[in-house]
């Protein structure tokens, strides 16, 4: 992996005098950082001057600070390392807010270094001044304003420590310009973190014993795993697979957790939640023991809380104590890191004299197979118009045997991608789950491609989302990052249109894009490669062309305009009240949601 | 905004809260560093929790530790969330729900004290009455002219409320209260 290439030739740094700007670069090197994403400006010029005079840190110049943030997120999510962004004061920092909140909600380790006006001018409404630590306080795990150059190195090292340990998240270090110029003592990474910060890693063994005992009584069990498994690292995914193998429990996953258990695995039910499969949601609804591993009972997962898996006893493994009992009350909470807890759990399971109730679980599987037979993801193919589902099936078929990474924007295409693109490994799927940031996918793909220059990186996009951060095509061309932007173009904000159809009498208020750019010409204008495909019969060749071109590609895939994303749990409904595609005639769809549900959204 | 109305925290389905809200006192031990109070207050406003009273001061100078005392109201479920959310803040060392702790210790509740300065201006009978009542409440005269008193009174919030109510018709001019300081009874520390 490119990201690791400099680990071997890195020298341990010493305590010595240097300027604040030098410290920033030295701290990045000492933290093993090789690539950062940023945009210069008045208040970070001293740091940019230092970057110019070294070659250990590779700086990627984005076109907007939001792009830097999402690129750093994609970089982090695909490598397991900390993503780093560098922005200037004022608008640089405010533009960073969206990716910071995005990273906070999806627990992505991110360090944002921002320039600030000189300390003597703070509070004077100086040019490009804003209260950066004030603005970013609620959208970071922690943030710092460094007023003394002698604190800078310690704070930077602490920032990396906080970002990557415990429940990972974004942090921000605000560095005034005079501190960047000032000379002070640099301290190498310190092993002793602050005393008030001590995330719990090891799970309480008594709680794990209780969990195991409960699992062994299960007749209708289900494992519901989430992004915490991915964040915990490869070992956690390995242990999850081992646990499934050992117990024969069915497993479903949240949007963020896809890939932790392979989609080809025999116990895989597909994604659950609002657009999850029938079998996953029904299994969740009817189970008697639920094992939540690193997920947080998000409202897109649970549907109506009072109707959520009403007859099950619930085990919840989470590193963040505030996630326990937040949305759903659980019977056995286990606070700790997924890999550590699973290791104990598997050891106890193996040592136990009782075994999972094989007979009951076999009966449970035959019930699940009946649900599976509903084929809830089915759709009607069309030989004249490309169905979005078909486009993704073909994309999957033609890229699955390659070293592929997928990012997405937010909307219908994102849900179809989650349903129709199948992941075998963790860290291959980058999407904005919690915040739902349209415009995430293109810059995230750039970040992934920088970390994995030889891999195939595809942003499955929508025509509306992709225009929010389209300018990063320019960055992709500059750094020869051959990202593939696969746009499912239906000319609508498809998910908005779908909700308007379901909830607002099909009054399609401002969800149609009257004037779309010509994506092919746009790609060419950026110096990339443009492809348009309008017929199902041309699709395979077009996708192959996209793969073969060694340039950033905008692929304008014209799909059926009015396709809806099913299954769908409508507002205010429970898991067993899904709308399914074959039931989703216009009448059924229009009557599916009562007036009360309409208000909930 | 009342926290109990935000039980699910979800815009997807707003569950009816069936638990009744209770009032509790939280003690929060934090590193005394810039912005730490903003983090705590921002958490309450951002997540829609109540603050009924807030008191903060550095208590251990060598270690730069401050103790924040917060009186808050919510269902037991929300109060649990508040405690966990506070514990996530990086400079927070410890959070103790003093009311829950008092229950565990078999006590009726933590000791709660508040100090108030109360300015009363007036002449003649009102002035005499104010001084007489102040004496009955063990309030001290900390400043006086022939036209006014400033009383210093310490006690439970309810006692101070009562004192203020009595002073109102006697020429009450100005009130300043510190907010609640609280601690559990017995030899054990926080």
TrEMBL record, chain A:
Residues 410-557 form the Thiamine pyrophosphate enzyme TPP-binding domain. Pfam families: TPP_enzyme_C (PF02775), TPP_enzyme_M (PF00205), TPP_enzyme_N (PF02776). Binds 1 Mg(2+) ion per subunit. Binds 1 thiamine pyrophosphate per subunit. Residues 18-134 form the Thiamine pyrophosphate enzyme N-terminal TPP-binding domain. Its EC number is 2.2.1.6. The keyword Plastid does not apply. Keywords: Amino-acid biosynthesis, Branched-chain amino acid biosynthesis, FAD, Flavoprotein, Magnesium, Metal-binding, Thiamine pyrophosphate, Transferase. It catalyses: 2 pyruvate + H(+) = (2S)-2-acetolactate + CO2. It comes from the Bacteria. GO terms for biological process: isoleucine biosynthetic process; L-valine biosynthetic process. Residues 208-344 form the Thiamine pyrophosphate enzyme central domain. Its cofactor is Mg(2+); thiamine diphosphate. The keyword Hydrolase does not apply. Pathway: Amino-acid biosynthesis; L-valine biosynthesis; L-valine from pyruvate: step 1/4; Amino-acid biosynthesis; L-isoleucine biosynthesis; L-isoleucine from 2-oxobutanoate: step 1/4. Belongs to the TPP enzyme family. This is Acetolactate synthase. It comes from Phyllobacterium bourgognense.
UniProtKB/TrEMBL annotation, chain B:
It catalyses: 2 pyruvate + H(+) = (2S)-2-acetolactate + CO2. GO terms for molecular function: acetolactate synthase activity; acetolactate synthase regulator activity. Pathway: Amino-acid biosynthesis; L-valine biosynthesis; L-valine from pyruvate: step 1/4; Amino-acid biosynthesis; L-isoleucine biosynthesis; L-isoleucine from 2-oxobutanoate: step 1/4. Its EC number is 2.2.1.6. Residues 25-100 form the ACT domain. One of its GO terms (cellular component) is cytosol. It is an enzyme of class 2 (transferase). InterPro entries: Acetalactate_synth_ssu, Acetolactate_synth/TF_NikR_C, Acetolactate_synth_ssu_C, ACT-like_dom_sf, ACT_dom, AHAS_ACT, AHAS_small-like_ACT. Keywords: Amino-acid biosynthesis, Branched-chain amino acid biosynthesis, Transferase. One of its GO terms (biological process) is isoleucine biosynthetic process. It holds the Pfam family ALS_ss_C. NCBIfam families: acolac_sm, PRK11895.1. PANTHER family: ACETOLACTATE SYNTHASE SMALL SUBUNIT, ACETOLACTATE SYNTHASE SMALL SUBUNIT 1, CHLOROPLASTIC. Dimer of large and small chains. Belongs to the acetolactate synthase small subunit family. Catalyzes the conversion of 2 pyruvate molecules into acetolactate in the first common step of the biosynthetic pathway of the branched-amino acids such as leucine, isoleucine, and valine. This is Acetolactate synthase small subunit.
């Amino acid at each position: 992996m490119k990201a690791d290439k400099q680990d071997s030739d890195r020298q341990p740094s010493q305590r010595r005098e240097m300027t604040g700007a030098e410290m920033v670069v030295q701290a990045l090197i000492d933290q093993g950082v090789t690539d950062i994403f940023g945009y210069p400006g008045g208040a970070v010029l001293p740091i940019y001057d230092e970057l110019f005079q070294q070659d250990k840190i590779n700086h990627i110049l984005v076109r907007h600070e939001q792009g830097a943030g999402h690129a750093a997120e994609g970089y982090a999510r695909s490598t397991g390392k900390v993503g780093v962004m560098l922005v200037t004061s004022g608008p640089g920092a405010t533009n960073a807010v969206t990716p910071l909140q995005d990273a906070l909600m999806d627990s992505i380790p991110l360090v944002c270094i921002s320039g600030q006006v000189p300390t003597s001018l703070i509070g004077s409404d100086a040019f490009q001044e804003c209260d950066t630590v004030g603005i970013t306080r609620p959208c970071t795990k922690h943030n710092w304003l460094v007023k003394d150059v002698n604190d800078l190195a310690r704070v930077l090292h602490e920032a990396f420590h906080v970002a990557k340990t415990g429940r990972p998240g974004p942090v921000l270090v605000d560095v005034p310009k005079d501190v960047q110029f000032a000379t002070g003592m640099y301290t190498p990474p310190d092993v002793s973190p602050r005393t008030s910060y001590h995330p719990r890693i090891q799970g309480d063994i008594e709680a794990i014993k209780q969990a195991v005992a409960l699992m062994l009584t299960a007749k209708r069990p289900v494992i519901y795993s989430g992004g915490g498994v991915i964040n915990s690292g490869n070992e956690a995914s390995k242990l999850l697979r081992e646990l499934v193998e050992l117990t024969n429990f069915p497993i479903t996953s949240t949007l963020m957790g896809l890939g932790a258990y392979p989609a080809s695995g025999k116990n895989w039910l597909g994604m659950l939640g609002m657009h999850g499969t029938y079998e996953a949601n029904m299994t969740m609804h009817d189970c008697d023991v639920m094992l939540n591993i690193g997920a947080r009972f998000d409202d897109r997962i649970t549907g109506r809380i009072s109707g959520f898996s009403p007859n099950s006893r619930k085990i919840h493994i989470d590193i963040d104590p505030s996630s326990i009992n937040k949305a759903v009350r659980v019977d056995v909470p286990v606070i700790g890191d997924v890999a550590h807890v699973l290791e104990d759990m598997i050891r106890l399971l193996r040592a136990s004299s009782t075994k999972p109730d094989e007979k009951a679980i076999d009966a449970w599987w035959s019930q699940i197979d009946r649900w599976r037979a509903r084929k809830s993801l089915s759709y009607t193919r069309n030989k004249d118009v490309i169905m979005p589902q078909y486009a993704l099936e073909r994309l999957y078929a033609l890229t699955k045997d390659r070293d592929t990474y997928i990012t997405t924007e937010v909307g219908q295409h994102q849900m179809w991608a989650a349903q129709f693109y199948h992941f075998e490994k963790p860290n291959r799927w980058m999407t904005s789950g919690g915040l739902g940031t349209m415009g995430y996918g293109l810059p995230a793909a750039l970040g992934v491609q920088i970390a994995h220059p030889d891999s195939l990186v595809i942003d499955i996009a929508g025509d509306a989302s992709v225009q929010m951060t389209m300018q990063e095509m320019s960055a992709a061309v500059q750094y020869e990052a051959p990202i593939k932007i696969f746009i499912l173009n239906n000319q609508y904000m498809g998910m908005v249109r779908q909700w308007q159809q379901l909830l607002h009498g099909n009054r399609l208020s401002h969800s149609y894009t009257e004037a779309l750019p010509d994506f092919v010409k746009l790609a060419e204008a950026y110096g990339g490669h443009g492809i348009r495909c309008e017929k199902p019969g041309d699709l395979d060749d077009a996708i192959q062309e996209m793969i073969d071109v060694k340039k950033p590609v905008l692929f304008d895939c014209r799909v059926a305009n009015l396709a809806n994303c099913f299954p769908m749990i409508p507002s205010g409904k429970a898991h067993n009240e899904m709308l399914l595609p074959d039931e989703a005639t216009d009448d059924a769809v229009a009557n599916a949601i009562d007036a009360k549900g309409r208000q909930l959204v | 905004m009342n926290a109990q109305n935000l039980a699910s925290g979800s815009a997807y389905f707003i569950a009816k809260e069936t638990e009744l809200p209770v009032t509790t006192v939280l003690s929060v031990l934090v590193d005394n560093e810039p912005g730490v109070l903003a983090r705590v207050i921002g958490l309450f406003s951002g997540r829609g929790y109540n603050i009924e009273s807030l008191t903060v001061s550095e208590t251990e100078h060598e270690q730069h530790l401050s103790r924040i005392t917060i009186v808050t109201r919510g269902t037991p479920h929300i109060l649990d969330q508040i405690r966990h959310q506070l514990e996530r803040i990086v400079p927070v060392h410890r959070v103790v729900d003093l009311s829950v702790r008092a229950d565990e210790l078999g006590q009726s509740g933590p000791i709660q004290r508040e100090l108030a300065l109360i300015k009363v201006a007036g002449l003649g009978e009102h002035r005499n009455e104010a001084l007489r009542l102040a004496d009955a409440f063990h309030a001290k005269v900390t400043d006086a002219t022939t036209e006014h008193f400033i009383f210093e009174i310490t006690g439970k919030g309810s006692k101070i409320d009562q004192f203020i109510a009595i002073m109102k018709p006697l020429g009450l001019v100005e009130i300043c209260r510190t907010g609640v300081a609280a601690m559990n009874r017995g030899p054990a520390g926080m």
